[in-house]
Specification:
Elements (H helix, E strand, L loop, with lengths): L1 E8 L2 E8 L4 E9 L3 E9 L2 E9 L2 H14 L9 E8 L10 E2 L2 H9 L8 H14 L4 E6 L9 H4 L5 H7 L8 H15 L8 E5 L5 E6 L2 E5 L22 H9 L3 H10 L2 H6 L5 H10 L3 H24 L5 E5 H6 L1 H8 L21 E2 L8 E4 L4 H13 L1
Parallel strand pairs: 1-6, 6-8, 9-12, 12-14
Antiparallel strand pairs: 1-2, 2-3, 3-4, 4-5, 7-8, 9-10, 10-11, 13-14
Helix pairs in contact: 1-3, 6-14, 10-11, 11-13
């Protein structure tokens, strides 16, 4: 069984094809900058190819990539694709699990556009492109928000007038659900225990970051909120701040709503504090090799916010079996992992500094006397989407 996974952005389209017998990736490909001089990236068996081509639509991007799949003999016919799994950013309260897409589901995804105006329209374009180009195949929607629909009301409601939840569904939704679910499931495999018996804190740390408290295998609380702007400090996003800062800055700087939104989403976080970059690697280089004080402050703030969230989730859970680091920073920054886990001995969390000196691999980094297991597990959201698609169409 081969599953095609499609991930559409506003100006990009990414695909992978998985052979679900052994869960190997047959091809990974993407088109960036649709509607311009598009950049095409193709990876097969570790070999990478880069092309440039004018592609004007998501339909055109998918059509081009599918032709490349056949021309490069990844599969001999599109009939070998059993189904298509789509990453859909927002499912609101309508969807608490993956679903086979029909007209009713598509209408439900359209209803959630108001909650994710930058993402859901692109996801819908990808679905419609697949329906046109692969009309005989089942399409499955896998939602970033679905995993977090198990959160209780005390976790997801905001302390604002309840009528705004009733009228506009303003509440915490959470994101990165496929990533949190994937690494939590992998922890259960490693420990040889049912996921329903485990309490885990998963730390997805990258340009976008979120931490999730998983209680008995289900999301109990997560740092991202109504939008992905909430929670941790990120690459360019501010995360949680005093909301009174927003009207204060609007008045002081004579800013529009659009301008303040742009500042908080695209000019804050690591970029805003460091003045260097949104890329943690560049900031680490400036902090440690060039003695850049603002870069040091940014890294200190990043680890402080992660540790702050980690501590609050330790208090929420009845016990803790494992902590997981994943995402670009979580997998590839041993320095950040060490800063986050430092001085947590009193909570039974101790990492082995020698074990922690690596990047991008699956490993346990907890010390032998640590009461809590600490892991680094590379995430694979696309494989999680393929798994959920396979389960639905079986």
């Amino acid at each position: 069984m081969n599953i095609l996974v499609v991930n559409c952005g506003s100006s990009s389209l990414k695909i992978q094809i998985f052979n679900m017998v052994d869960e190997t990736s047959l091809i990974k490909a993407s088109v960036e900058e649709i509607k311009g001089n598009s950049k095409v990236n193709i990876e097969i068996n570790g070999k990478k190819d880069h092309l440039e081509k004018k592609i004007s639509s998501h339909d055109g991007a998918l059509d081009f990539l599918l032709k490349e799949v056949l021309d490069r003999k990844v599969i001999s016919s599109l009939d070998e694709i059993s189904a298509i799994g789509h990453r859909v950013v927002h499912g609101g309260e309508k969807f608490n699990s993956a679903v086979i897409i029909d007209d009713v589901v598509l209408s439900g995804i359209e209803d959630c556009v108001v909650l994710a105006p930058l993402h859901n329209p692109a996801n819908i374009e990808g679905i419609n492109a697949c329906k046109r180009l692969l009309p005989s195949k089942n399409n499955v929607a896998v939602f970033d928000t679905a995993f977090h629909q198990t959160m209780p009301k005390e976790a997801f409601l905001y302390p604002i007038p309840y009528e705004y939840y009733e009228k506009y569904k303003i509440r915490k939704y959470g994101f990165h659900g496929s990533s949190h679910k994937f690494v939590a499931g992998r922890v259960a495999q490693i420990l040889g225990q049912p996921i329903s018996d485990l309490n885990i804190i998963t730390c997805h740390l990258g340009n976008g970051s979120s931490i999730t408290a998983i209680k008995n295998g289900q999301s109990y609380n997560t740092t991202m909120g109504f939008t992905p702007l909430a929670g941790l400090m990120m690459g360019t996003r501010c995360g949680d701040i005093d909301p009174a800062i927003i009207p204060y800055l609007i008045k002081k700087e004579n800013l529009s709503v659009e301008q303040i939104d742009n500042i908080l989403n695209k000019k804050s976080g690591l970029l805003g504090l460091s003045g260097v970059s949104s890329d943690c690697r560049e900031i680490e280089d400036q902090a440690w090799n060039h003695n850049n004080e603002r870069a040091k402050i940014a890294l200190d703030k990043l680890s402080f916010r992660i540790k702050e969230a980690l501590g609050s989730y330790l208090a929420l859970l009845p016990g803790i079996d494992a902590i997981v680091f994943t995402g670009g920073i979580g997998e590839k920054s041993p320095e950040t992992r060490e800063m986050v886990c430092s001085n947590l001995d009193h909570l039974g969390i101790i990492i082995d500094k020698e074990k922690n000196k690596f990047k991008g691999q699956e490993r346990e980094i907890s010390a032998s006397d640590s009461k809590v297991k600490v892991f680094v597990i590379p995430t694979n959201e696309e494989l999680m989407i393929a798994r959920e698609t396979k389960e639905l169409i079986k």
